[in-house]
Amino acid sequence: MSHPSAPPPYSDKDPLYPPPPGGYPQPGGYYPQPGGYPQPGGYPQPGGYSQPGGYPQPGGYPEPGRSTQPVPPMPPMPTVPLNIGGPEGYGPQIEAGEFGSWDDKAVRHAFIRRVYLIISLQLLVTVGIIAIFTFVEPIYTFVRRNPVVYYVSYPVFLVTYLVLACCEGPRRRFPWNVILLALLTLAMGFMTGTIASMYSSKAVIICIGITALVTIAVSIFCFQTKVDFTSCAGLFAVLGIVLFIVGIVTAIVLAFKYIYWLHMLYAAIGAVVFTLFLAYDTQLVLGNRRQTISPEEYVYGALKIYTDIVYIFLNLLQIVGSRT
């Protein structure tokens, strides 16, 4: 068998896939020639890339966890009335934190109105009892002959005062705060009326007028002055302790021998000290000072100012009554 002297033509290499029209590309067509690669100058120049300044600045990125969408405005917080559940000054207590900020003028003004409304009712009851004990002859004759009224009312006053002053629960919980405050007012009124019945009606009227003037003057002074009595809480605590000790010593001395000048001196010191206490407690109620009373403590604020006013009256009565 004879062999062909030459290989078959390129067109017959694969008869199943005929060559494309125009023939296969030549070997030089698959890869570019050495001169066909792009020269280094064809790449972008270093200045052609975006500079670092083109990226967002550090402050331009949103903070972690914060949405870039605009935040809708918050709706206004509704105001909680201070006389929920009853007339002004009474009603179920509101939980702490529902009164709003103490710096809110509306809250503070409502608190002041409530405190002074309670004080007005207390003083009205006390003055009424004093008037009965002083001007109704059968009653003041009975009280003078039977001082047991004073000795019975004093323990009631002392117990209710300590409960309201030291126990936060009863003085904030309705109706216990109202009941205790009413008992304290009646007991204080009976004590004051019993003492007033021992003096002349002229002295009682004069002392009521002086006490009213002192109270009004101190209140106006506390509204206008820039002096902050609440920043001297330690000094007032010392004054209270000294007055208490001096009172005990004076009572012991006077029990054995009555000394007129000692009695008058103690009464004068007591009137001055309780006037300062009235200024201190008034500023606690008014606020805008270093120390303030919480808006929930309207019973405590009324209790403090009421007892200060009554003690001023009693000390003035000892001074004026001894000269009439």
From TrEMBL:
- Annotated membrane-spanning segments are 115-136, 148-167, 174-197, 203-223, 235-254, 260-280
Per UniProt, subcellular location reads as: Membrane
Q: Which InterPro entries would you find in this protein's record?
A: Bax_inhibitor_1-related (IPR006214)
* Keyword vocabulary terms for this entry: Membrane, Transmembrane, Transmembrane helix
Q: How does it sit in the membrane?
A: Multi-pass membrane protein
Where is this chain compositionally biased, Low complexity type? 44-65
Q: Which domain of life is it from?
A: Eukaryota
Q: Which GO terms describe its biological process?
A: negative regulation of apoptotic signaling pathway
Positions of the UniProt region annotated as Disordered: 1-78
This protein's GO cellular component annotations are: endoplasmic reticulum; Golgi apparatus; membrane
- Give the family from UniProt: Belongs to the BI1 family.
Protein name as it appears in the record = Protein lifeguard 3
